[in-house]
Amino acid sequence: MRWVVLVLLFFGMIINFADKSIIGLAAVPIMEDLNLSYAEWGLVGSAYYWLYPVTGIVGAAIGDRFGAKKVLGVIMLVWAVLQFGVLAVAALPLLVVYRILLGAFEGPFSPIAYSHANKWFPPKLRGFANSVVVSGGTVGAMIVAPVLVALISIFGWKIAFACLGATSIVWAIAFQFLTKENPVKAYEQTKKKKKAKLEKLKLKDFGRLLVSPPALFTTLAYFSTYILVVWIAVWLPVYLVEVVGMSQGQMGYGVMIIGIASVLIYMGVSTLSDRMFKKNQNWRISRVYVVGTSMIIGAICLASIMIFQHPVWVVAAMCIAKGLTYAILPIGPTIMINELPERGGLMTSILTSSGNIAGIVAPLITGFILNLAGADEILGYNLSVLFMAILVFIFAILFLTLVKPTIRKQEESLESQASGN
Question: What does the alpha-carbon distance between residue 60 and residue 347 come to, in Å, rounded to a whole number?
Fold first, then answer.
């Protein structure tokens, strides 16, 4: 059953990121149909993130209380309604409202998915499980893109959006009928205790937890990596063409190679972390040291492309940099959940919301750096790369030296028993 849950969460993440990326793939026909200026299109692009961080936290808290199965099913059906609603969009205001609502209801998916996977898998497999969920985002944003482009070209952008809505309905039905909320009855034995803890959680205590080293520096490491995530999504294609000198075709293959290789790398790091944890049961060695070291190496590789800008090296370095820095994405949620297990969705929502804040500020930072460079665009792009490398390096060092996860041997034993069947 747990593998069925994981596969469905993987496909759910694919749909989530396909919903995000299709707006960019359909930019030209949308702007032509609705007669939008670049400024208006910028408004459409940013509207998605206006409520995303807030609803990510609120939705995750609701998921903790009412169960991931119910909440994920509901929000996926809302996605379907919104995607079918695009058929009625005929002007800018409706398009902006659609993007705001889509972002609001997609915000909770990632934290709830991480928390749900954490529930079904024992500690020794959680890094791998989360890496599978994370990889769904890469597939949805990069590998599914040609399919979406084909749909847009053949049937038009509105029908393509509606097709994603139909996919959401299929997923919601499958998730309700093929999965369960909890792994085994052993997990139910702790349910009353966890509900009691949910009621006793105070805002002041939660605030203290968020500024504790494990939560604070894990969040900052996650945030720094998401700056790179957004840069890769928005600026990498332009960087490969204008700075590295690739053709459009070479750029396309380069982006695809980086996406596939990085998935294999961060899944490998997650598997290594899981195996080390299985052997030594030491959170600091198996989780913090492995991820922190990976991020530091990744930051150095990222910085190296400023010096060595041969296309082959740039693609290779980006594969390594993206794969190693992304290690915090699957492992970070396990560390956060460990600090407050009964509020797993809420804790992971802190991470995902920090990432979404990065999604808002990262394009602005890169644009500011490019403006500082003036006419020398190559210098501007290289400075943006250096900025990200330094940011990841600093927060990786802080993560590596200051994060000491809480030891919960008894709870891990119970959860292993619950997740083992």
Answer: 8
Distance, in Å, from the CA atom of 229 to the CA atom of 298, rounded to the nearest integer, reads 13
Find the helix or strand (DSSP H, E) in which 417 lies.
helix 409-419
For 357-377, b/e burial (b = at least 16 CB within 10 A) is bbbeebbebbeebbeeeeeee
Phi, psi of 182 (to 5 degrees): -125, 155
pLDDT in tens, 167-221: 999 999 999 999 988 776 445 544 555 554 555 667 787 788 888 999 999 999 9
**What is the distance between the alpha carbons of residues 47 and 59, in angstroms, rounded to a whole number?**
19
CA–CA separation, 144 and 121 (whole Å): 28
How much is the pTM? Answer: 0.75
Instruction: Please give the backbone phi and psi of residue 175, each rounded to the nearest 5 degrees, phi first.
Output: -65, -35
Alpha-carbon gap, residue 396 to 292, rounded angstroms: 5
Q: Which domains does the chain have, with CATH numbers?
A: 1-181 (1.20.1250.20), 204-421 (1.20.1250.20)
Question: Is-contact 367 261, C-beta < 8 A?
Answer: no
Q: E strands of 67-185, at which residues?
A: none
